[in-house]
Amino acid sequence: MGEVYRAKDPRLGRDVAIKVLPASLSSDPDRLKRFAQEARAAGVLNHPNITIVYDIGTDDGGAGAPYVVQELLEGDTLRAELAAGRFSPRRSIECGIQIAQGLAAAHEKGIVHRDLKPENLFVTREGRIKILDFGLAKLTQSPESASATNVATATEPGVVMGTLGYMSPEQIKAKPADARSDIFAFGAILYEMLAGQRAFRGDSAGETMAAILKEDPPDLSATNHDVAPGLERIVRHCLEKNPERRFQSASDIAFDLETLSGLSTPAPVLQAPSVRWRRPALLAAAAAAFALAGLLAGRFLWTMPAASAPAFHRVTYRRGYMRSARFAPDGHAVFYAANWDGSEKPELFTARLDNPGSLRLSLPPGSVESISGSGEMLVLSDELFSVGYAHRGILRVAPLSGGAARDLAEDVAGADWSRDGKSLAIVRAAGWKYRLEYPAGKVLYETSGWISHPRVSPRGDAVAFLDHPQFGDDAGGVSLVGRDGKKKTLTNGASSTQGLAWSPSGDEIWFTASEAGSNRVLFAVTPSGRRRLLARSPGVLTLEDVSADGHALMTHSTERIGMVGLSADGKDQDLSWLDWSRAGMLSDDGSTLVFTEEGEGGGSGYSVYLRKMDGSPALRLGEGEGIAFSRDGKWVLSALAGRSPAPLILLPTGIGDARPLPADSINHDAVRGAFLPDGRRIVFTGSDAGHGRRAWVQDLEGGKARPITPEGVVGSVLSPDGKLITARGPDQKVGLYPVDGGSPRPLPGLDPNDQPLRWSEDQRFLFVSYDTRQATTARIYRVELATGRRELWKEFSQRDPTGVSRISGTDITPDGKTLVFSYSQRLSDLYVTDVVR
User: Fold this and answer.
1) Radius of gyration for the chain, computed over Cα atoms and rounded to the nearest angstrom
2) Between residues 174 and 309, which one has the greater pLDDT?
3) What would the pLDDT profile of 618-667 be if each residue is shown by its tens digit?
4) Which of 529, 559, 589 is at the close of a domain?
5) Are residues 64 and 100 located together in one domain of the fold?
6) Which residues pair with 4 in a beta bridge?
7) Where are the alpha helices (DSSP H) in 29-123?
């Protein structure tokens, strides 16, 4: 119903598509109304699987034609893709997840498409699905204004609208269409992708309509023997004639498809306790049993020795991510902190388990740390992240009923009450060291790594916690320390471990961890070190709490870290590769990016990749985390994460072999380092035995590393001439330290949240990222070194802010024209399980 032009936006320098309603049609009230409806429907949506609308207006050049400015898509429609034949089950699932997620975002805004079909689904060259053409959309509600709930639609009751073959039975009967009508159309499309033919077809329109109303499509197994029964059940559930019997939510479909997607790559089974977590090969029979268990379990896939799969009861229903949660003392309610709908700060809520819905509490933003039996809550507010996951904030206590909160302590990274509410376990961030105190003030354990999730035993005689040897990384294991200060390591070597609680009896410690990547599963370990697997699921599980009757409160999440490049011409491009693409270092000319894959795809030791900024495929260089890129572009310095002490290795970007650096006692941090201009020396951050973190310089040809900064002063952003580095001390002040020795000098004009990125080529300026580690908008400043004068250089945010917990600049070229930033995106829901035995 419109003409589409390719155009360039001169303000932002980007190519766009302009959809224009021709003058011959703009005089038609029905066409005009439908065109406006499409613009309004798409304009309120912001999701990667829905076409983005930039602007809307009317041509004032005399014709008066209305137009919509949209993102320019390059690729082809799903209909054109299907012309080549049916899709594989894997590709069908991947496409189905994207379509369902886009529909879920639209339905959440009260928008029903009503004309979903392969022609209205676009497959970009990168493989992303985009939902097009909301021209028949029905806006059932609007969060922007109450008056919008009565927007006139383009059709009237009793008029059949849609595309035959994908219309729901209620649409054919000219009954009101809601989100479940889109779900029916989705089922027909998913069927067509798997079968290579339409679900409903006849020799005439009447026969096709009759098939939709009365017949079921042929079994998928008859046309595609590779379709698993679980996938066919999802399709059948979408195509129920009665909308009450269909899926009621597109997000539920996406979740079930993601569950099936996880079956295609069976997760490794973690075995009995050892110094390192082992990765045994899976036999085909075990994989088949694993898949069968997943299909029987329904929404989650569980593997539990000698136990039945627990049932899950959903607690939260909004779109965003959980921060933390705890059971109320009676076990019938929960208190939790979450960032919903793109909010930057976590809000506190309470919910009863027997009644869907949550009540927001009138308390300062923060994370729930602990609930006392006397009705008080420990809240960690104003959290700041120093490196990676390592954080600190202000610990406050507040009544559960809401009201004023009282400050207890600063620089706290975690806390928990004893069961009687008389003693408090606190993790304090003391400079670059973390200390566990129990009771508060008595130090039981100190580390140059970091500590999380302290939980006091039911008897109050010990504290269990997660010990992370590498500062900022969530790798590590479970440790136990008694009141006498004797520490015992119960597990070690997990790639990711977050979430911990004692079993009701105190005989076990439950925790969530993973061998590789971040897809954590639920384990139990006894104080003697005997470990068992309790449950697993596709996606990420995080244990929040355990009730007195043995119910587990867990967050289920889908997580990713992505990266976006901003080029000199103002264009932005998502450069994410696998699941956790953490942006790292740019070449001086801005043409090449070195980054690290830290998730499932990166393996247990992570992987270093090199990618051109033009979006061409990435090249894996080797294991570890990239921390420095040589100026000639031939070498990348990598820290081998997960080992203690973590060694360094040189990875070639072209022909050549990796060169491990000589082993020493230094635990090398996975934070920014640098090659000196001569290419023969490096600077890096690390700690040696018995000492805190500091900056070091080392000759690549051999010899011991030499400290540049005092203990506790960390940093290694090197000046172009190789003579100075920026480094931050425990007081959070940044100074300039001579690499070859000498007195440092202060660096004025920097904020404690400023993260130095790069010097300008003339060394007059320092580019810094203002990084609170919780912001959804990031800013790059240019600071003049001589005067401290600062100016805002760049400001950027992610297109879809929902679930984005952090955006930060990671590198910028010396001319300040090209930069790359990372974003962390997590969507999660809170669940309570039945008793786990």
Assistant:
1) 28
2) 174
3) 999 998 899 999 999 999 999 886 566 778 899 999 888 889 888 788 88
4) 559
5) yes
6) 19
7) 29-43, 78-82, 89-108
Number of domains, the chain: 2
Residue 599 lies in a domain: no
Give dist(CA 658, CA 699) in Å, integer: 17
At 310, list the tokens: 């627990």
Out of 20-34, 375-389, 668-682, least confident range: 20-34
- Tell me which of 15, 115, 219, 740 is the catalytic residue: 115
Residue range(s) defining the domain that contains residue 433:
284-559
723 lies in a domain? no
Q: What is the 3-state secondary structure (H, E, C) of 750-786?
A: CCCCEEEEEECCCCCEEEEEECCCCCCEEEEEEEECC
* Residue count of the chain: 837
The answer to the question of residue 746 being in a domain is: no
In the predicted model, is pLDDT for residue 288 greater than 70? no
Same domain assignment for residues 433 and 486: yes
99-114 burial code (b ≥16 CB/10 A, e <16)? bbbbbbbbbbbbbbbb
Rounded CA separation 82/832 (Å): 41
Do 242 and 312 lie in a common domain?
A: no
The answer to the question of residue 484 being in a domain is yes
Query: CA 741 from chain center: how many Å?
Result: 42
pLDDT at 604 over 80: no
Do residues 520 and 270 lie in contact, with contact meaning Cβ atoms separated by under 8 Å?
A: no
Are 127 and 191 members of one domain?
A: yes
Residue 614 annotated to the active site = no
Same domain, 341 and 451: yes
Which CATH number belongs to the domain containing residue 9 in this structure? 1.10.510.10
For 314-325, the pLDDT digits (tens) are 899 888 889 999
pTM of the predicted protein model: 0.50
The answer to whether residues 780 and 793 touch, using CB atoms and an 8 Å cutoff, is yes
Q: Are 427 and 412 in contact (CB under 8 A)?
A: yes
Record the tokens describing residue 339, joined without a space.
Answer: 């960032």
